[in-house]
Amino acid sequence: MPKKKFSETKVGKFLKGAAPKVLNILGDVFPSVGILNKAKNLIQKDISISNEDKDIALKLLEIDVIEMQEITKRWESDNLSDSWLSKNVRPLTLVFFSISYVIGWFLEYPLDSITGLLSLIVAAYFGSRGFEKIKSIGNKN
Fold first, then answer.
1. 87 plus 60 within the same structural domain
2. What is the DSSP string of 79-114?
3. Is residue 74 situated within a structural domain?
4. Is residue 28 part of a domain?
5. With contact defined as beta carbons under 8 Å apart, do 120 and 3 qualify?
6. Where in the sequence is the domain holding 97, given as residue range(s)?
7. Whether 13 and 63 share a structural domain
8. What is the count of structural domains for the chain?
């Protein structure tokens, strides 16, 4: 899943105005199922949020969870494919951008544009792998 901080999700953007206390707690973390469940509990328990805003926030939270699940399904489908390229495109992208970054660093190129992209790729690759492993462990039980 493309990793974005909780504050950058649909529910995070909504909470910026409706419930800044909740956003301050979770704003800089990367969403996972556990974090989104924690967010749901915080939203439901926060008495400073109106019931209408709670309903909107919970619906947006549900949309974010569905988005995470759909991306994971797409990545699992790629891994089940017979195509070598579809199975290896994410690792190859990670390797390419990592090597490019190191070469650029040694050659003292400005790395502002590649830093954000590499961070996103690393977070998506390793974050999704963690989510997939947790999901597979849950399926075994």
1. no
2. HHSS-HHHHHHHHHHHHHHHHHHHHHHHTT---HHH
3. no
4. yes
5. yes
6. 83-140
7. yes
8. 2
Residues 27, 16: Cα–Cα separation, whole Å: 9
Which DSSP category does 61 fall into? H
Q: 107 and 58, same structural domain?
A: no
> What pLDDT is attached to residue 135?
57
Kindly state the tokens that stand for 80: 């089940």
Q: Give the model confidence (pLDDT) of 1-40 as tens digits.
A: 446 666 677 777 777 777 676 666 665 555 555 667 777 7
Contacts of 68 (CB under 8 A, 6+ apart): 1, 31, 33, 36, 131
Q: Which DSSP helix (H) or strand (E) runs through 48?
A: none
**pTM > 0.85: yes or no:** no
| 78 within domain boundaries | no
Query: How far apart, in Å, do the first and last CA atoms of the chain sit?
Result: 24
| CA separation for the pair 2, 4 (Å, rounded) | 6
Angle in degrees, 0-180, between the axes of helices 51-80 and 10-18, rounded to the nearest 10:
160
- pLDDT at position 98: 92
Cα–Cα distance for residue pair 79/56, rounded to 1 Å: 35
Note the pLDDT tens digit of each residue in 68-122.
778 778 777 777 878 888 788 888 999 999 999 999 999 999 988 888 888 888 8
